[in-house]
Every structure is written in structure tokens, then in C-alpha cells.
Amino acid sequence: MRKAVFFDRDGVINIDYGFVGKIENYDLVQGVPQALHHLKELGFLLVLVTNQSGIARGKYTEADFFKVTQFLQENLRIADACFDGIYFCPHHPEAPLAQYRQDCECRKPKPGMFKKAAIDLDIDLSQSIMVGDHATDLIAAKNAGISKLYLVGEHIKTEKELIEGCFCYQDLSEMVQNLEIEKK
Length: 184
Ligand SMILES: [Mg+2]
Ligand SMILES: [Zn+2]
Fold this sequence. Notes:
Layout: E1 4-7, H1 32-41, E2 45-51, H2 53-56, H3 62-77, E3 85-89, H4 112-121, E4 129-132, H5 135-144, E5 148-152, H6 156-159, E6 167-169, H7 172-183
Parallel strand pairs: 1-2, 1-4, 2-3, 4-5, 5-6
Helix pairs in contact: 1-7
């Protein structure tokens, strides 16, 4: 079995402008490719788990999401920092688009995407890590059996009140630097 780092996407990997569905407004957070590459070198699989209710809300399509995903992976390939697995939830319980309207098992804080990844990629969740920018990301990970929880990004102050026992860092780069210090 492998260990993995799970990531939320918007606000962790790219700047969260709200419902990012197009390449035109897909901007990586500074230092992300290097940080991901470093985690890969430490032996972690890199897995993205992202709620994309923008699809259910009709703000962009699944095809748009796949285009952004391809763009992301191409940018990361240069740094040898590609994701090993990408999981997304296109649903919302009150979606205007009927085909996406459901109370699914994948939308975080439910642990569906983590459980699927664990099966697909033979991941030991108890040895894995979660990095998110909202408490719901970490609650989902906790629900899946992940105990090492990291909160990064601009919402740290308010979100950390909502979850117990997580580490807080400004961004992914700072988190990875401190992971190194923890090891020494
Ligand atoms: Mg987010
Ligand atoms: Zn879902």
C-alpha cells in the first residue's frame, strides 16, 4: 500500500476566484509545482479531491472541468509534479440541472472521493495527509480515516475554529517546508 497527500483544488492549488471553470482564470498558487514535486520525492502519491458544484449549477460543464484539469496537469508535468489521481464531485443536492441534483456520497464533507481513491490507487489512508483551505475538506478527510490534517490559505483564521487538531500554514510551500522540519 502507498501513502498519499490529498489536496483540495480551489484555494490550495489555484487561486479561488469562485467557480473556476475556465483556463482563462486558472492561476496556480505560487510555489505549488515545486511543493508537489517535493512531496512526490518523499514517496507520496498526489491525489486531488475537489467539489465542483459549478457543474451542477450550470456555471461550467464537465468538459470545461476536464480542459482545466488537462491544463493543470500539463503545467505540472514540467516540474514532474503531476497528480496521480483526480476525483471530482459535480453534484449538488439543490442543483438547477436535474442530472446533477443528488445527495451524493462524493461531495465533501462526505468521504466518497477518498474511499474511491484508496481502492483505485491502493492507498493506506491512515498513513496519508490532507491539505485543504476549508474545514469541510478536513472533515471529509477525517471521515475517511485520515488523521494528519493541514489547513492552508486565506481562510485559516476562521476555518481553524471549526476543526480540531489541524496544522495551519500560509500556503502549500510553507506546509511542505515544515513537513521537512518535522522529519528532522
Ligand atoms: Mg477550496
Ligand atoms: Zn458527488
